[in-house]
Amino acid sequence: MSFEVIPAIDLRGGQVVRLRQGDYAQETQYASAPSELAAKYAHAGARWLHVVDLDGARDGDLANITVIRALTKAGMQVQAGGGVRAEEDVHRLFDAGVSRVVVGSIAIREPERVAEWLNKHGAERFTIALDTRRRDDTWTLPSAGWTADETRTLDELAPWYAAHGARHLLCTDIERDGMLAGFNLELYRHLAQTVAQLAVQASGGVRSLDDIRAAREAGARGVILGRALLEGRFTLEDALAC
User: How far is residue 36's CA from residue 99's CA, in Å, rounded to a whole number?
Assistant: First the structure.
């Protein structure tokens, strides 16, 4: 069973940034140009690149589509999202060269519509992003760049998507995102038990190569690496060797 190590590039205003726990007021900018960083990741041997349009995630438009188009030419397959609100957005990303479209807010708010896209375009062309925050013993699902609360829960929607043909699930523990506190292994063990048919991508908090190995042992089928790579906690080459 394959396991993917996927470097991430988060975009805001066309620049590489990271947010702390999804807070737009706690942004760190990095000097690397997105295209240069993508070329570096491709040279290291990455097969996939994860791209987030943070402007789009919050405001509902594909503000960084030109940059995303350029990143698809770096030599990796790209999964990208942030701002996907309609099928027109899906087509724009496909036309830009994106291999898999990441759907988050609309996947929470309008699952029936997303299920239609899975059926029409093929489940392999989508990653369902159910980023979660633990509250009162419930895995809640904030949307709109994690700024809006929703009523549906992870334990409701993940099995629903599994039953409706989804193949890929990206799940971030929001409290750990950008914190270098390690993956929430309890979360990924839970998903491995409840939606074993989904290829789950772990995201949020990786700080070491041991975290990558632990996520794999917990049942994840891939890991998203952001801040740890940007700050040189380890090399992508070493992460891929895991």
Answer: 20
